[in-house]
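Researcher: Please translate sequence to C-alpha coordinates.
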Amino acid sequence: MQLTRYTDYAVRVLLHVGARDEGDLSSIAEIARVYAISKNHLMKVVQNLGQAGFLITVRGRNGGLKLGRSADTITIGEIVRHTETGFDLVDCGSCIIARACTLPRILNEATLAFLAVLDRYTLEDVLARRADLRGLFDKPMPLREAVVRLGKAAAEEVR
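Model: Translation complete:
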Protein backbone atom coordinates (compact mmCIF):
# COMPACT_ATOMS: atom_id res chain seq x y z
CA MET A 1 0.00 0.00 0.00
CA GLN A 2 1.29 3.45 -0.87
CA LEU A 3 -0.03 6.57 0.80
CA THR A 4 -0.91 9.59 -1.33
CA ARG A 5 1.14 12.75 -1.56
CA TYR A 6 -1.77 14.51 0.18
CA THR A 7 -1.30 12.30 3.26
CA ASP A 8 2.45 12.86 3.09
CA TYR A 9 1.94 16.63 3.10
CA ALA A 10 -0.62 16.43 5.93
CA VAL A 11 1.81 14.49 8.12
CA ARG A 12 4.65 16.89 7.26
CA VAL A 13 2.51 19.88 8.23
CA LEU A 14 1.51 18.30 11.53
CA LEU A 15 5.11 17.34 12.30
CA HIS A 16 6.35 20.84 11.56
CA VAL A 17 3.66 22.49 13.63
CA GLY A 18 4.01 19.95 16.45
CA ALA A 19 7.78 20.38 16.65
CA ARG A 20 7.45 24.08 17.49
CA ASP A 21 7.83 25.35 21.04
CA GLU A 22 4.52 25.74 22.83
CA GLY A 23 2.93 29.01 21.76
CA ASP A 24 5.04 29.42 18.61
CA LEU A 25 3.07 29.48 15.38
CA SER A 26 4.08 28.13 11.99
CA SER A 27 3.17 29.69 8.67
CA ILE A 28 2.26 28.00 5.42
CA ALA A 29 5.06 29.93 3.69
CA GLU A 30 7.60 28.66 6.22
CA ILE A 31 6.46 25.03 5.85
CA ALA A 32 6.45 25.33 2.07
CA ARG A 33 10.00 26.68 2.14
CA VAL A 34 11.34 24.00 4.50
CA TYR A 35 9.88 21.10 2.50
CA ALA A 36 10.08 22.75 -0.95
CA ILE A 37 6.35 22.20 -1.46
CA SER A 38 3.91 24.45 -3.31
CA LYS A 39 2.11 26.91 -1.00
CA ASN A 40 -1.08 26.32 -3.01
CA HIS A 41 -1.00 22.58 -2.22
CA LEU A 42 -0.29 23.26 1.43
CA MET A 43 -3.13 25.76 1.70
CA LYS A 44 -5.60 23.02 0.72
CA VAL A 45 -4.06 20.55 3.15
CA VAL A 46 -4.01 23.08 6.00
CA GLN A 47 -7.62 24.09 5.39
CA ASN A 48 -8.70 20.45 5.51
CA LEU A 49 -6.67 19.73 8.65
CA GLY A 50 -8.15 22.82 10.27
CA GLN A 51 -11.71 21.79 9.44
CA ALA A 52 -11.01 18.35 10.94
CA GLY A 53 -9.65 19.86 14.17
CA PHE A 54 -6.06 18.72 13.72
CA LEU A 55 -4.94 22.35 13.37
CA ILE A 56 -6.02 25.73 14.63
CA THR A 57 -5.45 28.56 12.19
CA VAL A 58 -4.87 31.99 13.67
CA ARG A 59 -5.55 34.84 11.27
CA GLY A 60 -3.93 38.23 11.19
CA ARG A 61 -0.52 39.81 11.16
CA ASN A 62 0.89 37.54 13.87
CA GLY A 63 -1.17 34.56 12.82
CA GLY A 64 -0.18 31.08 11.86
CA LEU A 65 -0.82 27.43 12.63
CA LYS A 66 -0.80 25.39 15.81
CA LEU A 67 -2.00 21.94 16.71
CA GLY A 68 -5.73 21.72 17.37
CA ARG A 69 -5.19 18.99 19.96
CA SER A 70 -2.30 17.69 22.00
CA ALA A 71 0.15 15.63 19.91
CA ASP A 72 -0.34 12.66 22.23
CA THR A 73 -4.04 12.47 21.29
CA ILE A 74 -3.56 12.42 17.51
CA THR A 75 -2.81 8.96 16.16
CA ILE A 76 -1.06 8.37 12.87
CA GLY A 77 -3.93 6.03 11.96
CA GLU A 78 -6.43 8.83 12.49
CA ILE A 79 -4.48 11.12 10.17
CA VAL A 80 -4.22 8.44 7.47
CA ARG A 81 -7.92 7.56 7.72
CA HIS A 82 -8.78 11.24 7.38
CA THR A 83 -6.57 11.94 4.38
CA GLU A 84 -6.89 8.72 2.39
CA THR A 85 -10.11 8.12 0.46
CA GLY A 86 -10.14 4.38 -0.04
CA PHE A 87 -8.55 1.34 1.44
CA ASP A 88 -9.79 -1.28 -1.02
CA LEU A 89 -6.61 -2.88 -2.33
CA VAL A 90 -8.37 -4.51 -5.27
CA ASP A 91 -11.58 -3.78 -7.20
CA CYS A 92 -13.57 -7.00 -7.20
CA GLY A 93 -16.81 -5.52 -8.53
CA SER A 94 -16.44 -6.75 -12.10
CA CYS A 95 -14.54 -9.97 -11.40
CA ILE A 96 -16.34 -13.17 -12.40
CA ILE A 97 -15.16 -15.07 -9.32
CA ALA A 98 -16.01 -12.33 -6.79
CA ARG A 99 -18.89 -14.28 -5.19
CA ALA A 100 -16.68 -17.30 -4.43
CA CYS A 101 -13.32 -15.61 -3.82
CA THR A 102 -11.98 -15.11 -0.30
CA LEU A 103 -9.12 -12.79 -1.29
CA PRO A 104 -11.10 -9.59 -0.48
CA ARG A 105 -11.62 -10.81 3.10
CA ILE A 106 -7.89 -11.51 3.45
CA LEU A 107 -6.91 -8.13 2.01
CA ASN A 108 -9.42 -6.39 4.28
CA GLU A 109 -7.88 -8.15 7.28
CA ALA A 110 -4.42 -6.99 6.16
CA THR A 111 -5.65 -3.40 5.80
CA LEU A 112 -7.17 -3.47 9.28
CA ALA A 113 -3.88 -4.79 10.68
CA PHE A 114 -1.98 -2.00 8.89
CA LEU A 115 -4.28 0.64 10.38
CA ALA A 116 -4.14 -1.01 13.82
CA VAL A 117 -0.35 -0.55 13.85
CA LEU A 118 -0.71 3.11 12.85
CA ASP A 119 -3.29 3.55 15.62
CA ARG A 120 -0.70 2.49 18.21
CA TYR A 121 1.48 5.52 17.44
CA THR A 122 0.71 9.15 18.10
CA LEU A 123 2.07 12.33 16.61
CA GLU A 124 3.90 12.71 19.93
CA ASP A 125 5.73 9.42 19.27
CA VAL A 126 6.94 10.73 15.91
CA LEU A 127 7.96 14.01 17.54
CA ALA A 128 10.14 12.25 20.13
CA ARG A 129 13.24 14.04 18.77
CA ARG A 130 11.58 17.47 18.68
CA ALA A 131 14.81 19.41 19.19
CA ASP A 132 16.49 17.63 16.28
CA LEU A 133 13.48 18.30 14.06
CA ARG A 134 13.42 21.98 15.01
CA GLY A 135 17.10 22.25 14.14
CA LEU A 136 16.46 20.77 10.72
CA PHE A 137 13.44 23.00 10.11
CA ASP A 138 15.18 26.17 11.23
CA LYS A 139 18.38 25.64 9.28
CA PRO A 140 17.61 23.94 6.02
CA MET A 141 20.82 23.46 4.09
CA PRO A 142 21.37 22.64 0.44
CA LEU A 143 22.04 18.99 -0.30
CA ARG A 144 25.58 19.72 -1.48
CA GLU A 145 26.44 21.41 1.84
CA ALA A 146 24.93 18.53 3.82
CA VAL A 147 26.99 15.98 1.88
CA VAL A 148 30.20 17.97 2.39
CA ARG A 149 29.55 18.24 6.15
CA LEU A 150 28.81 14.53 6.43
CA GLY A 151 31.98 13.72 4.52
CA LYS A 152 34.07 15.91 6.81
CA ALA A 153 32.48 14.37 9.91
CA ALA A 154 33.18 10.86 8.60
CA ALA A 155 36.80 11.79 7.86
CA GLU A 156 37.22 13.16 11.40
CA GLU A 157 35.92 9.89 12.88
CA VAL A 158 38.44 7.86 10.86
CA ARG A 159 41.36 9.90 12.29
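Researcher: Any highlights?
Model: The CA atoms of residues 102 and 142 lie 50 Å apart.
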